[in-house]
Design brief:
Blueprint: H1 4-17, H2 24-40, H3 47-56, H4 65-80, H5 114-120, E1 158-161, E2 166-169, E3 174-176, H6 182-191, E4 210-213, H7 215-220, H8 243-250, E5 254-255, E6 263-271, E7 274-282, H9 301-314, H10 322-333, E8 337-341, E9 348-352, H11 374-379, E10 392-394, H12 402-405, E11 409-415, H13 418-423, E12 428-429, E13 433-437, E14 447-452, E15 476-480, H14 481-489, E16 498-502, E17 505-506, H15 510-526, H16 535-548, H17 550-569, H18 595-620, E18 626-628, E19 631-636, E20 667-674, H19 675-683, H20 688-691
Parallel strand pairs: 1-4, 4-7
Antiparallel strand pairs: 1-2, 2-3, 5-6, 6-7, 8-9, 10-18, 11-19, 11-20, 12-17, 13-16, 14-15, 14-16, 18-19
């Protein structure tokens, strides 16, 4: 094996002499990147001894981390800058497992490029992992633009560790992880793995590396394979006297207040500008909820890494459930502080970042709070609460006509990520609420208004736009600005009795909406559902999209759960049997505990739904049978939405009504049943929209 100095000499010779390599300025940048890599891996030299021991035991050949680093660097150059007349070099990962059990061959051995041949002899080979990376068949529909690799995090945001010490990263990369304890794993992750992700906003923070543990890896590190107890599994924690917890504390690492559970954060206080924090997720402890990550827990480690890696690239590196990640994404895109220079001292200090929610939690107005909130309990508030929730409405069976009952089908339409569509350009309050008596209504001011909308007479064949159950209001009630504005839009005068309004406003959720919208569209496109499809092609593509690539289908499900869960987390209720009414619960300490923002999103989503329902009556004369959140069921002469949706003579969909398509706010087919089936459910008091897909749909109310 060539010495390190010989390999470094080869690097310099290639950079200085090969005419097909990058220009001098680019070479200097590459040298700097190599230096950064070398510096980051300096601490990894201590693993060489362990590597030699492994080799002596027949597990692997001795390796130098610095040699590996330069091998990876040259692999990238060989692929990006092939020699004249040479075929492009195949991309090479740090370690590529082979299925046969023989040492994996480096692509440098087959690349027809001089710089590849120059270091082929020096490149150490690694035996195959005991379990080969699972083959993934991703359809070549389209590829979203790949972000530039940050030289500080050459191996991506996360890795999935198996019981054989193989850490599967993004892009098919596999790293050797010699750790046998949790403390060693944390040290390896921070100093040797090259894992992490750059910040999403220039005022924000880099994402901490995520290590996902398989059941075998958890046992190898001294953790139980499963956590057992009476509580919900996601609430379980290791006891403080567990050996692993003691090891972590003894090594002067800390755990967050939620302890060592399915999602454990291990950290030390920040030293200078470098964060020291690692996120662990334990698959066998149900870290990945089946509803949000369907089928992922049962996948091979390489495919788990692929799913989570794509999610991290398009959304955020997971830090907990999809709901937690949705909330963390808001903060990552709108950091609470930014660095400003103190004019008196010249020092850079953190200050409030305009447009953010700041660093301090804010109490809501009494009608915006929940009944157990201290603001309500301590003040004795009895003036009512906002009831801005998603629709749960079924039309009275007596209002069905004979013509409707004779139609053969009931067809369900589902709006794509309706809450995400409602978050677009949504102006919300950023400051504390102020109380006003008899204010003039202003649709541009976000807040809560006490208004009597009970006098407004609407068609009973449609749900009331003012209540979640679709029933006409009985008297004065509290409404969010969008609900009152819609009453005004319908031509009714509104006279608020009182209001809690916010003076400072902004489109806080805009970057959150934009990032999740792009993630949703890109992932659907990877599954073969693009905006260029005709309506017939779109319906066919949606029918089979989950079978095209289960891994990408899981990413799509996680993105949708991130939207719903993130909105729900804005009003997280107290958890645990020991909670007493009037006490402050942990969620109230977050600046992102903002029930008024949640109410604004749901109010706008419900108003958008009613507007489409009304336009459908005007364009087609059709009335819905039932609505559940973003799903609506219509009687239909055929089994397709194309049999009743309104289209112009040119074939284009009529504006204002439901339209088919893959973007947020457009519709897709939810399910088809017989009209007799729907009427039978309605007569029994059930909601056809809940069951039309088959099974029991989950109410998408942002909880």
């Amino acid at each position: 094996m060539a010495s390190e100095e010989e390999l470094f000499a080869s690097v310099d010779a290639l950079l200085n002499e090969e005419p097909h390599l990058p220009p001098p300025a680019e070479r200097a940048r590459l040298r700097e990147a190599a230096g950064i890599t070398q510096a980051r891996l300096a601490g990894a030299l201590k693993t060489t001894t362990q590597s030699v021991k492994n080799w002596e035991n027949g597990r692997s050949e001795p390796k130098s981390p610095r040699l590996d680093a330069y091998q990876r660097l040259l692999n990238g150059w060989a692929a990006k800058y092939p020699a004249p007349g040479a075929a492009p070099a195949a991309p090479v990962t740090a370690t590529v497992p082979a299925a046969s059990g023989e040492p994996a061959a480096s692509a440098l051995e087959t690349a027809d490029a001089p710089q590849a041949r120059a270091v082929a002899a020096a490149a150490p080979a690694r035996p195959a992992a005991s379990r080969p990376a699972a083959a993934s068949h991703r359809p070549a529909v389209r590829k979203a633009a790949q972000p530039a690799v940050d030289p500080r995090f050459p191996h991506g945001p996360l890795a999935v560790l198996d019981g054989d010490g193989c850490a599967y990263g993004t892009g098919g990369i596999v790293l050797d992880c010699p750790a046998t304890t949790v403390v060693e794993l944390v040290e390896w992750t921070l100093h040797e793995s090259g894992l992490g992700a750059p910040k999403l906003n220039r005022h924000g923070k880099d994402s901490d590396p995520l290590i996902v543990l398989t059941a075998a890896a958890a046992v190898k590190l001294g953790l139980p394979e499963r956590l057992e107890g009476h509580e919900q599994r996601r609430s379980l924690r290791l006891p403080e006297d567990h050996t692993v917890v003691k090891q972590v504390v003894k090594a002067k690492w800390r755990l967050t207040q939620r302890g060592f559970g399915p999602w454990a954060r291990i950290y030390r206080k920040v030293q200078g500008r470098e964060r020291q924090c690692v996120q662990l997720a334990i698959l066998s402890w149900d870290a990945l909820d089946e509803r949000s990550w369907p089928g992922v827990t049962e996948m091979e480690p390489a495919d788990v890494a692929r799913v989570l890696g794509i999610y991290a690239q398009r959304v955020i590196t997971p830090r907990g459930s999809t709901a937690v990640s949705g909330l963390e994404l808001m903060t990552a895109l709108r950091p609470p502080t930014r660095a400003t220079q103190d004019p008196t001292t010249g020092n850079w200090v953190p200050s409030h970042n305009p447009g953010s929610l700041g660093t301090d939690p804010m109490d809501p107005a009494p009608p915006e709070a929940t009944p157990e909130h201290p603001v309500v309990v301590n003040s004795g508030w009895s003036g009512g609460f906002l009831n801005e929730e998603a629709y749960q409405w079924v039309r009275d069976v007596s209002l069905l006509t004979d013509e409707e009952c004779t139609l053969p089908y009931a067809v369900g339409l589902d709006l794509n990520t309706a809450f995400l569509a409602a978050a677009a350009r949504l102006v919300v309050g950023l400051s504390a609420p102020d109380h006003f008596r008899a204010p003039a209504f202003n649709p541009k001011i976000p807040g809560s208004w006490l208004v009597d909308l009970s006098r407004i007479e609407l068609d009973p064949r449609l749900p009331s736009p003012f209540t979640p159950d679709g029933v006409r209001p009985a008297g004065p009630a509290w409404y969010q600005t969008h609900t009152v504005a819609y009453a005004q839009e319908l031509g009714h005068n509104v006279t608020p009795i009182e209001a809690y309004l916010r003076r400072e406003t902004g489109a806080y959720l805009d970057p959150w909406h934009d990032r999740l919208k792009n993630a949703y569209i890109d992932t659907l496109a990877d599954l073969g559902v693009t905006r260029e499809l005709t309506n017939v092609e779109f319906l066919a593509a949606m029918e089979r999209h989950k079978d095209v690539d289960p891994a990408m289908a899981a990413v799509l499900a996680a993105i949708k759960a991130t939207v719903k869960g993130g909105i729900g987390k804005l009003r997280e209720r107290p958890q645990g049997r020991r909670y007493k009414e009037g006490e402050r619960w942990p969620a109230l300490q977050r600046p992102t505990w903002r029930p008024d923002i949640r109410a604004a999103v749901i109010s706008k989503a419900r108003v958008n739904m009613h507007r489409k329902l009304t336009n459908m009556v005007k364009l087609t004369g059709l009335y819905p049978l039932a609505v559940l959140s973003d799903c609506v069921v219509y009687p239909s002469p055929g089994a397709s939405p194309l049999d009743f949706l309104p289209y112009a003579a040119s074939g284009k969909p009529q504006p204002g009504a439901f339209r088919l398509g893959p973007t947020p706010g457009l519709a897709k087919l939810e399910g088809v049943q017989s009209m007799l089936w729907a009427v039978d459910l309605m007569e029994q008091g059930y909601n056809p929209a809940r069951h039309i897909k088959g099974g029991d749909a989950v109410l998408d109310e942002g909880e």
